[in-house]
Amino acid sequence: MPQADSIFWVAAVAVVIWAGVFFYCLHLDRKVRELEEHE
Amino acid sequence: MTDKRWLLKWLLGVWLAVVVLGAFFYAPTARGFKGESARIVFFHVPQAWVAVLAFCVNLIASLRFLRTRDPIDDARAASAAGLGLLFSVLATVTGSLFAKVMWGSFWNWDPREVSIAILLLIYAAYFALRQAVPDEERRGSLSAAYAVLAFVTMPFLVFVVPRIYWSLHPDTLLNARGSIDMESRMVQVLVASLVGFTGLFSWLYTLSVRLARIRLRRQQGVEG
Amino acid sequence: MLSEAMAVLGKELTGELRSRVALNAIGLFALTTLTAVAYQIGPYRIAAEDRPHLLAALLWIILFFAATSGLARVFVKEEDAHTAKTLRLAARPEAVLLGKLLFNLLLLVALEVFIVPLYCVLMAYEVKGVAGLVLVLALGSLALAAVATIVAAIISRASGSGTLFAVLTVPLALPLLVILIQGTRAAAESPDVAAVWPALRAIVSLAGVTLIASAYLFPVVWHD
Prior knowledge:
The structure holds 3 protein chains of 3 kinds. In chain A, about 95% of the residues lie in helices and about 0% in strands. By secondary structure, chain A is mostly helical.
């Protein structure tokens, strides 16, 4: 059923978006760590 | 110490991923809502909550700045406001998408919708003010003053206006969220989402303040 | 303190009566908007069931925007003319705030005395509760003047531009506007003063809260 199928896609997109945001935040965190240790 | 922090962050990542999946597959479809549209509530409500939380953090930091004049407090206020702006945009957008599916139009002038939009306007005004002041200390005190002013007037919109201004949509988001009708699975996902989003806010806020601290130290290093 | 405030008020009044800049600005703005509205919409073009809403709302739109065009002057002109420093030395901050607040209040009242009857005539606005309307206008002006004066103080220390004033005032004044429109509707529809009571309560508390916050914040803004 197309209705049930599309929910999988929406959920997948949502997880991917979150993963993207999360790893980006980790990346920023790492950068800030480097700046802090540099001092 | 640092290992524990990394662990917490990874935990947050997994937690919110689980929440997202849970919002789509674990929670049942709500009665009275159109199809799957209710699921957006699991994201919309926490976003609105974070926008308000950021507002409170901003208030506290602003009051502190007015007392201490320490630039780090101003940085804290600005960081909170920046995140507040982001989350109020998200909350307004998700709320309006939900409104479109549920009631057919993107905007309905429901008092709760208007409150989040006004919060958005307050944040935008806050940054417009900051941009207009070149001197750092004055920028801090003027924006702190505005933040306090905004904080005292907000409750009127959220609490007083709905009482004297009858809403056309009795089943506002608050009712839908707070009603006993809500099944326990939905409550579980919602609470988990609230916790997750609060954690995310906390992380982003700390990052922003850490960055500001570095910037301040550099500045002082150059001058001193 | 009171005598200092009266002195500030007296200075504002004499200055204004001499040059009439603010009066002209807000008067002209209100008159132009009113003419445009009255000409295009007039007494006949609104359906009977929409009249209560629309007429109350339009009145306040006219008043509010005229106010934003003229109420910021009270502080901005001091900064522009470089008389602000002298004023800081000559009077206590509380006195300055009170004096300028009263000036803005008088300006608003003068505007209303001029525009409101004209509006009622041109738009055939039948107001059943005149006493109620007067109360709403009087207390509403106090609240509006309170918000506008502290925001004017803030922006005069920033870039002082009119746009910034509008941007900062709108989010704070929106709850007030909603209550005022509601109160005006109630006054127009019923001769009983009790009909405006809920709105009046809200207006008074909002004015009170704003005044208290202003009293606390103004010295900070003024002396920075």
